[in-house]
Automatic annotation (TrEMBL):
It comes from Uliginosibacterium flavum. It is an enzyme of class 2 (transferase). Residues 37-80 form the N-acetyltransferase domain. The keyword Lipoprotein does not apply. Its EC number is 2.3.1.-. Pfam families: Acetyltransf_1 (PF00583). It comes from the Bacteria. One of its GO terms (molecular function) is acyltransferase activity. Keywords: Acyltransferase, Transferase. Coiled coil: none annotated. This is GNAT family N-acetyltransferase.
Length: 113
């Protein structure tokens, strides 16, 4: 994310910051072939939400470039919308996220200004 937006977004490693910010995470996994020849589930993407105030905020969203364009993010987007009917986006948006938003219904996304 930092490479794509030039902005680093760090979360504290202590559970207290996750609890305070009411953090929730949507993980995207896929089967990958390991060096040993066995398949295993691997984390390929993540969407992190905080609820600082009234509206949840999509704070961090990332899908590994090798997995983009395969419909994985659209599936997550539907799951996110089901859980959060209205939410805000934390800027800055990467070019990849901007392209994604141009392809999907994002009428439920609130202005963060």
């Amino acid at each position: 994310m930092a490479l794509e937006t030039g902005n680093r977004q760090d979360l504290g490693e202590q559970a207290t910051s996750w609890i305070k910010n009411q953090t929730s995470v949507f993980a995207t996994t896929d089967k990958v072939l390991g060096k040993d020849g066995n398949e295993r589930e691997c984390l390929v993407g993540i969407a992190t939400f905080h609820t600082f105030q009234q509206n949840p905020v999509l704070y961090h969203c990332y899908l590994h470039p090798f997995y983009r364009g395969k419909g994985l993010m659209e599936r997550v987007w539907r799951e996110v919308h089901a859980r959060y009917p209205r939410f805000e986006l934390e800027p800055p948006l990467s070019p990849a996220m901007s392209r994604f938003l141009s392809k999907v219904d994002h009428s439920h996304v609130l202005s963060s200004t």
